[in-house]
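Let's study a protein:

===
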Amino acid sequence: MPDIFDLFKENEEKLHERPAEKVWQKLEKKLDKTRHPRRRGIRFLQPVTVVMILFLLLLAAVMVWYFTHKG
């Protein structure tokens, strides 16, 4: 059984082969089709919405506590 290093030495020229231009174009078309547009606004709004809801709940809890203990 040949050594792994010998295999690499014997097949080194295959490592530098470049595919045809048509192959690259087909690959780029496939990649363009599979890419989805990013929706940055939705990712940003979700954490902000959660923080705002928590803030409003905390504010409501403080107001209820304040008005029940005021008198």
